Amino acid sequence: MSAAPRPGRFGAFGGRYVPEALIPALEELDEARQKAMLDPEFTDELERLHRTYTGRPSIITEVPRFAAHAGGARVILKREDLNHTGSHKINNVLAQCLLTQRMGKRRVIAETGAGQHGVATATAAALMGLECTVYMGKVDTERQALNVARMRILGAEVVAVEHGSATLKDAINEALRDWVTNVERTHYVLGTVTGPHPFPEMVRDFHAIIGEEARQQVLDLTGRLPDAVVACVGGGSNAMGIFHRFVDDAAVRLVGVEAGGEGIEGGRHAARFASAEPGVLHGAMSYLMQDGEGQTLETHSVSAGLDYPSVGPEHAHLRDTGRAQYRYATDEEAMEAFRLLCRTEGIIPALESAHALAGALEIGRELGPDGLVLVNLSGRGDKDMHTAARWFGLVEDEGGSAPAPGAVVTGGAEDVGAASVADGVQA
Amino acid sequence: MTAVPADATGATGATGATDRGVGEVLAACRREGRAALVGYLSVGYPDVATSIRAMETMCAAGVDVVEVGMPYSDPLMDGPVIQRAAAEALANGVGVDHVFAATEAVRAAGVPPLVMSYWNLVLRRGVPTYAADLAAAGGAGLITPDLVPDEAQEWIAASDEHGLDRVFLVAPSSTPERISRVTEATRGFVYAASTMGVTGARATVGGTAEDLVRRTREHTSTPVCVGLGVSTGEQAAQIASFADGVIVGSALVSCLMDVEVEQGLERLDALTRELAAGVRAGVRAGVSASGAEADR
């Protein structure tokens, strides 16, 4: 590999591994976003939308009843779940749709896993009068049926992708095929910090507002910086968004939490950093779950949004340089953290964000009572009610709402004392 | 290295062609005053043995270059036909070693084999290792649909070392700057995508391709072959009137789908002959800028 720095590289990672046909569109996009970031007409309009449409700044919430299970450390949530459309995804989407207009394009396409990015894109397209097509793996359309309905109600066409593993990676393949065919009038609103340059850098910059707000909010509340900033990592956009402003704060630990699925041993997981080696997928060099020949492996997570075989290239760089650490939470650990936040704080998190909460419980215990942990609560869990209800045996069947016979439905029982904290999150 | 005659050196001649590459075959087609026919099949579809027989069938029926396609889990430049072939071949256990078995067989049939592979499969084996193995197995070079010259330093070095062709693509969206960059890095032929989009048969492959070939010739004397969408002898003749080669993929792969093996090979033989007649029927009006007239 050449030692000369190349654009769009984070150390050895990133780059532009795409068909030549897309290079002009990537160059046009790179130029447009660089100009836009310096143009008050763009930045003012984006700021206005953040304030009057999304509801920014999102608040922070300290969660002491939850924190009692985290070794007594202080835990603060950055509430991206309160944004319009219910997750952080809207930050990036509003900016990219404004860019779409500036580039004179009339149509946007997007991929979606959990459906949050698809819903956000359909929302912004409705707001700005753009045509919108969203690609979603067939498996995901089934486990996130509510979000499919939301996108369609917002006027988007939702295409269920049936080939391959019929999840997020296949949705991206199909979106890229659409883009290469219709690039002249279409912008691909990529939803995370991966893909070919300039997407990883651009999407990070559009989410950096999360960390900028949170850093100041935590300072205002506590008078100091957090000891650790924790976020879940699928592609890694919410994590890069909250990490970015803290990268230069050397004393602040950055911790990404991947999906451990059913555990690393059996291979049914999406913990790239726990097992994978570098490779190229969807335009970027990064850590990639692949077999010995370079074919992409199928991944597993209870959370559709983390069910992806690669990870944003900047995360790969932060990991290899030691600036950020990555761990994983299994489906079971994430579901327990999900339940715990619901029961102790009355906040229903997205299953993706529940992985970050599971990580925060561990880190809090490592830090002890003097610790201060900031968690990016990247989305809300309404979309996950179906999965959660089945997991906890709260419904009899797919359509039902009555508790299953024998299901344990307790109320308010999570208020444990410090003595039981060491035993973990089981209540 | 024993499988290949005259492969002891990777030295490039005055034209940039290598002993191993497709340059000599394309030059011979030029001397005949016709375009070359490049035929694609996926290794391992419907199974490894049949796919190699199918490639040999194409060689006997008149292809000038075989494009040996390696199935990949995420073929983002391919349409439904090749996606399906790739998925079934992978499910049947096709591997990169089978590519080299195919290139040996095609070379033994007297036709240069160019491998079409998505980049991660090359990267995973190690670029220098892949290049050495490909050269040892009689390969002419690589077509890389998701690798642009900007990311190809390692491949350019390895292909130089082993005298392999490196076929990069241009597309209707390519600017003059991009065409210049791509053609400078290319050896063998430039792959001109006839339309914006993925592989698969199309009713028409009209004027966009001709314009792209013309724009490409402003930057290079390397042959320019046109692919994407060609499925009939008539279309091949049309493309042959302005390009140095016609690349056909999905239509050939389709011959092997949903039929008994022998019947599939018959269909493949018939279509290859139709296409081979097509590239010979094209009126070569538009090639003067290529320098072809010197050979005729």
Automatic annotation (TrEMBL), chain A:
<protein>
    <recommendedName>
        <fullName>Tryptophan synthase beta chain</fullName>
        <ecNumber>4.2.1.20</ecNumber>
    </recommendedName>
</protein>
<keyword id="KW-0028">Amino-acid biosynthesis</keyword>
<dbReference type="InterPro" id="IPR006654">
    <property type="entry name" value="Trp_synth_beta"/>
</dbReference>
<comment type="pathway">
    <text>Amino-acid biosynthesis; L-tryptophan biosynthesis; L-tryptophan from chorismate: step 5/5.</text>
</comment>
<feature type="modified residue" description="N6-(pyridoxal phosphate)lysine">
    <location>
        <position position="89"/>
    </location>
</feature>
<dbReference type="GO" id="GO:0004834">
    <property type="term" value="F:tryptophan synthase activity"/>
</dbReference>
<comment type="similarity">
    <text>Belongs to the TrpB family.</text>
</comment>
<dbReference type="GO" id="GO:0005737">
    <property type="term" value="C:cytoplasm"/>
</dbReference>
<keyword id="KW-0822">Tryptophan biosynthesis</keyword>
<dbReference type="InterPro" id="IPR036052">
    <property type="entry name" value="TrpB-like_PALP_sf"/>
</dbReference>
<keyword id="KW-0663">Pyridoxal phosphate</keyword>
<dbReference type="InterPro" id="IPR023026">
    <property type="entry name" value="Trp_synth_beta/beta-like"/>
</dbReference>
<dbReference type="InterPro" id="IPR001926">
    <property type="entry name" value="TrpB-like_PALP"/>
</dbReference>
<feature type="domain" description="Tryptophan synthase beta chain-like PALP">
    <location>
        <begin position="56"/>
        <end position="379"/>
    </location>
</feature>
<keyword id="KW-0057">Aromatic amino acid biosynthesis</keyword>
<dbReference type="InterPro" id="IPR006653">
    <property type="entry name" value="Trp_synth_b_CS"/>
</dbReference>
<dbReference type="Pfam" id="PF00291">
    <property type="entry name" value="PALP"/>
</dbReference>
<keyword id="KW-0456">Lyase</keyword>
<comment type="subunit">
    <text>Tetramer of two alpha and two beta chains.</text>
</comment>
<comment type="function">
    <text>The beta subunit is responsible for the synthesis of L-tryptophan from indole and L-serine.</text>
</comment>
TrEMBL record, chain B:
<dbReference type="InterPro" id="IPR011060">
    <property type="entry name" value="RibuloseP-bd_barrel"/>
</dbReference>
<dbReference type="GO" id="GO:0005829">
    <property type="term" value="C:cytosol"/>
</dbReference>
<keyword id="KW-0822">Tryptophan biosynthesis</keyword>
<dbReference type="InterPro" id="IPR002028">
    <property type="entry name" value="Trp_synthase_suA"/>
</dbReference>
<protein>
    <recommendedName>
        <fullName>Tryptophan synthase alpha chain</fullName>
        <ecNumber>4.2.1.20</ecNumber>
    </recommendedName>
</protein>
<comment type="similarity">
    <text>Belongs to the TrpA family.</text>
</comment>
<comment type="subunit">
    <text>Tetramer of two alpha and two beta chains.</text>
</comment>
<feature type="active site" description="Proton acceptor">
    <location>
        <position position="78"/>
    </location>
</feature>
<dbReference type="InterPro" id="IPR013785">
    <property type="entry name" value="Aldolase_TIM"/>
</dbReference>
<feature type="active site" description="Proton acceptor">
    <location>
        <position position="67"/>
    </location>
</feature>
<comment type="function">
    <text>The alpha subunit is responsible for the aldol cleavage of indoleglycerol phosphate to indole and glyceraldehyde 3-phosphate.</text>
</comment>
<keyword id="KW-0028">Amino-acid biosynthesis</keyword>
<comment type="pathway">
    <text>Amino-acid biosynthesis; L-tryptophan biosynthesis; L-tryptophan from chorismate: step 5/5.</text>
</comment>
<dbReference type="GO" id="GO:0004834">
    <property type="term" value="F:tryptophan synthase activity"/>
</dbReference>
<dbReference type="InterPro" id="IPR018204">
    <property type="entry name" value="Trp_synthase_alpha_AS"/>
</dbReference>
<keyword id="KW-0057">Aromatic amino acid biosynthesis</keyword>
<dbReference type="Pfam" id="PF00290">
    <property type="entry name" value="Trp_syntA"/>
</dbReference>
<keyword id="KW-0456">Lyase</keyword>
